[in-house]
TrEMBL record:
<protein>
    <recommendedName>
        <fullName>Coenzyme A biosynthesis bifunctional protein CoaBC</fullName>
        <ecNumber>4.1.1.36</ecNumber>
        <ecNumber>6.3.2.5</ecNumber>
    </recommendedName>
</protein>
<keyword id="KW-0460">Magnesium</keyword>
<dbReference type="GO" id="GO:0015937">
    <property type="term" value="P:coenzyme A biosynthetic process"/>
</dbReference>
<feature type="coiled-coil region">
    <location>
        <begin position="146"/>
        <end position="176"/>
    </location>
</feature>
<keyword id="KW-0175">Coiled coil</keyword>
<keyword id="KW-0436">Ligase</keyword>
<feature type="binding site">
    <location>
        <position position="166"/>
    </location>
    <ligand>
        <name>CTP</name>
    </ligand>
</feature>
<comment type="pathway">
    <text>Cofactor biosynthesis; coenzyme A biosynthesis; CoA from (R)-pantothenate: step 3/5.</text>
</comment>
<feature type="region of interest" description="Phosphopantothenate--cysteine ligase">
    <location>
        <begin position="15"/>
        <end position="224"/>
    </location>
</feature>
<feature type="binding site">
    <location>
        <position position="148"/>
    </location>
    <ligand>
        <name>CTP</name>
    </ligand>
</feature>
<dbReference type="GO" id="GO:0015941">
    <property type="term" value="P:pantothenate catabolic process"/>
</dbReference>
<comment type="function">
    <text>Catalyzes two steps in the biosynthesis of coenzyme A. In the first step cysteine is conjugated to 4'-phosphopantothenate to form 4-phosphopantothenoylcysteine, in the latter compound is decarboxylated to form 4'-phosphopantotheine.</text>
</comment>
<dbReference type="GO" id="GO:0004632">
    <property type="term" value="F:phosphopantothenate--cysteine ligase activity"/>
</dbReference>
<keyword id="KW-0511">Multifunctional enzyme</keyword>
<comment type="similarity">
    <text>In the C-terminal section; belongs to the PPC synthetase family.</text>
</comment>
<dbReference type="GO" id="GO:0004633">
    <property type="term" value="F:phosphopantothenoylcysteine decarboxylase activity"/>
</dbReference>
<keyword id="KW-0285">Flavoprotein</keyword>
Amino acid sequence: EADILSGLPLKGKKVLITAGPTYEAIDPVRFIGNHSSGKMGFEIAKAAANKGAEVVLISGPTHQTVTHSLISVIPVVSAQEMYDAVHQYFNITDIAICAAAVADYRPKKVASQKIKKQESTLTIELEKTKDILASLGAIKKQQFLVGFALETNNELENAKEKLKRKNLDLIVLNSLNDKGAGFKKDTNKVTFIDSDDVITNHQLKSKTDVAKDLINKIIEQINA
Ligand code: CTP
Ligand code: CA
């Protein structure tokens, strides 16, 4: 089909992708995490590599695996480690896609010993993590930058606000209002919003197909 006519449209392009959750240590045996499976990010990596891109996939803890000659996986654990890894690659990147479910907060102090059970309540003070995507938006040059937005209300408005505030070229709105969509599922219902405010709604589909739609949209945009 179209691939045969256009060859490999991302040949020679370097694509940086974040995936999965991050784990933020509380003490040596405990962490704060989330239910992200990493599936969406891994599917995007495969879709990009299948179009010829050289992919660096920076992933938090996940059970996902991939073997593809064009994909290198860099495992990280915390938001800070993901931030550091992403910034190591960003200046040689053509397209960056932040699909990770990065923790927004982490324990302000990490206990060096296992916290023992004592009082009936325990308070852990949290501090904000760095926003990786926003940090890329602030320094980007020629890079095409893509973010995700997970929203439960005022979806379009919130997603548009994130696109502008984080200086993105494209944002993928993930609708949690649909039962088949989201964390741990094999399907997603997404809406693309580009920097010209062009909105594309998609049906509920497999994350594999969402990833293909996203890569096709990016190819369209960078060639426009
Ligand atoms: N993101 C990131 N680093 C963070 C937090 C978020 O790179 N510390 C990225 C995510 O990978 C995603 C986008 O920012 O691409 C939006 O994440 P989301 O959680 O929807 O938005 P936040 O900006 O964190 O705002 P909030 O959770 O308050 O809605
Ligand atoms: Ca968040």
